[in-house]
Amino acid sequence: MGPVEQEMIEFNTFFKSAVKSQVALVDIITNYIIRRKGKQMRPMFVLLTAKMFGEINESSYTAATLIELLHTATLVHDDVVDDSYERRGFFSINALWKSKAAVLIGDYLLSKGMLTALEKKEYDLLEIVSGAVKEISEGELYQLQKSRKLNIKEDEYFEIIKKKTASLIAACTAVGPKSVGCDEATLEKMKSFGEYTGIAFQIRDDLFDYQKNGLIGKPVGNDIKEKKLTLPLIHALENVSASEKRKILKMISSRNMNQKKLSEIIHFVHLNGGIDYASTKMTEYRDKAMETISGFPDSAAKTSLIELVDYSIKRKK
Fold first, then answer.
1. Alpha-carbon distance 87 to 74, whole Å?
2. Nearest to residue 299, comparing CAs of 12, 42, 55, 63?
3. For residues 266-299, b (16+ Cβ closer than 10 Å) or e, as one string?
4. How confident is the model over 180-207, as pLDDT tens digits?
5. What are phi and psi of 278, to 5 degrees?
6. Which of 106, 226, 250, 303 is the most exposed place for a label (fewest CB within 10 A)?
7. Distance between CA atoms of residues 161 and 154, nearest Å
């Protein structure tokens, strides 16, 4: 966390206050979420980008809180949509309190974000974050539409991850500078920085599906089981004959996906250059992100931001 270590402590106090409720069940569930929060990369992106251009203030904490409320809500809703009973090695909300409570808690978190912004009169921050909510929802629905037909092309894949993942990171790197009064030109550059970073981050996440050692944060082959075509598989399918492509797609679409089929698909992706190609693309987007902020003055916050981007594509889970 480096230059925002103290500010992250302040943020956590701000966030806990934002989710408080007079309804006991809401507090029980939100306390469970807070105790099991992950690395909090997104609030870090907000605070580091704010510190690059000014002094972190109450508006910056509000921005980080809006982002974390949105991110947490999407995770809770994702677990319901994916029928997942585990999150970061712990039971998910829907596993413990059932899907109805999970959906309502997700809605509660989203509404608290809107109310927090309105109470603080942070209308510009709310506009940026609301835009990200729209993009994430559209991205998920577009992926669902394309996954049903198993016909995602590379350009469509990038459109999906730009909406699903990159839009939220872009919102982080826009609301941070916005909170300290940056001009529109700087905001656009920082938003592009976040978008490139988010795309690289998602490619890294998609590569986990094809790791052979199993030492990762999600089950190997999980995307394949859910019939999600990601970049490694999309590229591998483009490098083979029509008959082999049909064979692989038939295996993916089959109802009785077993470990043997899963291993064969993973081997197919490795054999046909999917991993190397996706890794190259990930590095390209990381380099685009670095180029976008290269002209800004050097500082401890900028150095930590670069380290955070590097971590996001080198992480093991």
1. 13
2. 55
3. bebbeebebbebbbebbeebbebbbebbeebeee
4. 999 999 999 999 999 999 999 999 999 9
5. -65, -40
6. 250
7. 11
Going along the chain from its start, the domains and CATH numbers come out as 2-314 (1.10.600.10)
- The pLDDT, as a whole number, for residue 81 is 79
Write the pLDDT tens digit of every residue in 108-155. Answer: 999 999 999 999 999 999 999 999 999 999 998 998 888 778 888 999
**The two three-digit tokens of residue 186, written as one number:** 């700087």
Question: What are the distances in angstroms from CA 125 to CA 27, 270, 298?
Answer: 26, 43, 26
The answer to whether residues 13 and 34 touch, using CB atoms and an 8 Å cutoff, is no
**Residue type, position 259, single letter:** Q
Residue 214's SS3 state is coil
Residue 134, CA distances (Å) to 74, 120, 122, 167, 206 in order = 12, 22, 19, 9, 22
Q: Which residue has the tokens 């890794």?
A: 279
Q: Measure the CA–CA gap between 221 and 263, rounded to whole angstroms.
A: 8
Give the whole-angstrom CA distance, residue 74 versus residue 136.
9
Q: Which of 45-59, 76-90, 121-135, 271-285 has the lowest mean pLDDT?
A: 76-90
Looking at residue 317, what is its pLDDT?
63
Q: How far is residue 175's CA from residue 61's CA, in Å, rounded to a whole number?
A: 10
- Residue 293 corresponds to which tokens in the numbers above? 């902020």
